[in-house]
Amino acid sequence: MAGPLLQPLLLLLLSFALGSAEEEAQDTGERIINGVPCPRGAHPWQVALYHNNVFLCAGVLVHEKWVLTVADCYSREYIVQIGTNLLVDRNAQKIRATEFFTHPRYDVTTNVHNIMLLKLSSPAKLSPTVRIMKVPSSCKQPGTTCTVAGWGSTTMDGVRNPSKLMCSNVRIIPYNDCKQVYPTLLRKFTICAAPPRRSSFACKGDSGSPLICQGSLQGLVSSDYFPCRPPFDPIIYTRVCKYRKWIYETIIKNC
């Protein structure tokens, strides 16, 4: 009796364990605005979310049938593009997602608990260009070097998206330092990161883009504040490591 009941859970845990390590961006560029193209194939877990053929935001494949993104990227249905650095790629996997699960304490007015899971209508086909990123078991500390990648606007007017995935090297900033910049926006379950010389910034379309720190998924760009122009303040991310339990429980209950 126990075998059939445990099998789905064991498969789920195995799929999480297949997450592969991140390669940091090889260029010295520190931006998504003014960004550098990510190395081809370096982000095989990153997906692009579309609605009615319009790019909305990014997400991360955390299971063959599940994508993690931010709740403010909500739509009634999505086409999830998987396995490519290109924003538009006819050869990429495209899978419909019509089921979504926002965090039960998400507040649309304050963006608290800005995180959401999408269930794909069919499993993604894993390959060298399509991989699962495991959910982190621990939180990285301030000073850790990370990479954020996205298809958000590369111009300060916020209207031009790149054709390729763009990367920026950043570091996690101490909570109290970021609190001085965002006295009302920063929350307990968020994290801040910025390039060393503050020469770059995420912009419109970068919501849901993953912050990868030493091979670990630590954040998702949260669109609390996108001035898209200097001075480039730190970016606020949903701190994924704080939601590990909710992510696992949601997937297991809705397999």
Automatic annotation (TrEMBL):
It comes from Myotis myotis. Keywords: Disulfide bond, Hydrolase, Protease, Serine protease, Signal. It comes from the Eukaryota. The keyword Disulfide bond applies. Pfam families: Trypsin (PF00089). This is Kallikrein related peptidase 7. InterPro entries: Peptidase_S1_PA, Peptidase_S1_PA_chymotrypsin, Peptidase_S1A, Trypsin_dom. The keyword Protease applies. Residues 32-252 form the Peptidase S1 domain. GO terms for molecular function: serine-type endopeptidase activity. GO terms for cellular component: secretory granule. Gene3D superfamilies: Trypsin-like serine proteases. Belongs to the peptidase S1 family. Snake venom subfamily.
